[in-house]
Amino acid sequence: MSNRKNKFNVVIVGSGFAGIVAANILSESNLDIVLIDENIYIGGQLLRKIPDKLSEYPVYHPDYVKKIGFKFIECLKTKKVTIINRGVVIGIYPEKKILVEVDEKEVITVNFDVILFATGARERFFPFKGWTLPGVYSTGLAQVLMKTSGVLLAEKILIGGSGLFLFAVAYETLRNRAGVTAILEQTAMLDKMKLISQLFHQFPKFVEGAKFLSKIFLSGVPVKFRRKIVEARGKESLQEVVTARVNKSGSIIPGTEKIHKTGALAVGYGFTANIELPQLAECKLDYSDAKGGWVVRVNDEMLTTREDIFAGGEITGIGGALKSINEGKTAALAILRRFDKIAEDDYFLRLKSLSRERKHHLKFGEYFNLLYKIPESTILDIPDETIVCRCEDVTMADIKKAVQADFNTPVSLKTAVRTGMGNCQGRICGPIIYDILSALTQKSPQEVGRFSVRPPVKPVSIASLLGYHDNR
């Protein structure tokens, strides 16, 4: 049986910007706080940092926003906060308890008065012929390998898909002495001009973007807009990628196909919120294209529809680090008020300022979430033989056939063809399956619905479960 402390006033799940900001603020209040994260180090995806032992890696120079994040991490090390690294929350239960697998060795019970979900986001994928070939990677994986291990996908890579993250990955690849064949962006260059109106409120983002673009252009990397990845080809691994130009609606323009010889393709289509735990806790969810898809419903205090559950960061809407910092502060203040740790006048004064600031972050998120939304015509153009659910080898044709037989919701489709029943539990295929079902049935995402969620939310080892003891 574990000797870990198992009762806390506040449990924070996720150590990205929202989580570490909230933990820092709450740690000053003499409350018992625990911060749980799946990774070895706290900081989330954006604050991943190359280990010092990899001496040949170029000197790391974080931008303005990341510097803020690293300061929060350093401050947290001096605070009275229990940190559980490599902790995977596998279930949440009505009696205010969660089950956590720690180090893949044991499952423990953690009881709480209040819980803050700050579980962030993951990459959104879009299937195309050959995307399961070795040599086809996600842009997120490319970044993780560089940041955590100093490993490059190849000496030269092709980057494609849609979203601002493509340029961040290209920048880091170039900084680490690898080459980029080209950046292929599915949206049009002129569409991005809409973001200029947000310059005043999102200045750090534009500075970062300018840094990325200057490095890319000075390195002579071709940046092609309205280019779609059509197919990845190779016998045993990736050898070439077929791309094509697309029109305003996202459909391929015949005769514009081009072949790129490459052994590595990094591809990504933005991000989708990790909302499985709030969904399991029966928090209300909303679908919003402006927020990037399915998100957790919160009020101005970041309180969900459950009395003792708060949410902050990307799970309330994809919007970047500044939004997450804002919501981490807001949630922390609301929790302090819950425990009578802040004066009412001070609370409402600070909440008013944070709420006003949050509106600007949401507006910026709305611009790029709508800009990078995958068009319906692009979804309907997925070839029948293309695998959509990688875990169960379910093709687009399988899904179409099931929908014709009235299996037209994620849950019924799961029963018919096993989509979402593999190791990833629908995390990779889920978002695109929702879009496919919406396009095929001409129903709204709300009408289509989502996959159901039940514990364990993520795979857990039998050895951990065998050693479980309810240490309430």
Task: Describe, in plain words, how this protein is organized in 3D.
The chain has 472 residues and is α/β, with parallel strands linked by helices. It folds into 3 domains: 214 residues, FAD/NAD(P)-binding domain, CATH 3.50.50; 145 residues, 3-Layer(bba) Sandwich (FAD/NAD(P)-binding domain); 67 residues, Orthogonal Bundle (Arc Repressor Mutant, subunit A). Helix content is 33%, strand content 21%. It contains 14 helices and 21 strands. Strands 1, 2, 3, 4, 5, 6 and 19 form a 7-stranded mixed sheet that branches. A 5-stranded parallel sheet has the order 8-15-9-10-11. It is globular and about 65 Å long. The termini are close together. The mean pLDDT is 90.
Number of helices: 14
Shape: globular
CATH superfamily of the largest domain: FAD/NAD(P)-binding domain
Our measurement of the CA-to-CA distance between the termini, rounded to an integer number of angstroms, reads 11 Å
Could you tell me the mean pLDDT? 90
Structural class: alpha/beta
> Which runs of at least 5 residues are low in confidence (pLDDT < 50)?
none
Named CATH topology of the largest domain: FAD/NAD(P)-binding domain
Largest sheet: 7 strands, mixed
Q: Say how many strands there are.
A: 21
Strand content is: 15-25%
Computed CA radius of gyration, to the nearest angstrom: 22 Å
**CATH uppermost class of the largest domain:** Alpha Beta
Count of the separate structural domains:
3
The amount of helix comes to 25-40%
Report the CATH architecture of the largest domain: 3-Layer(bba) Sandwich
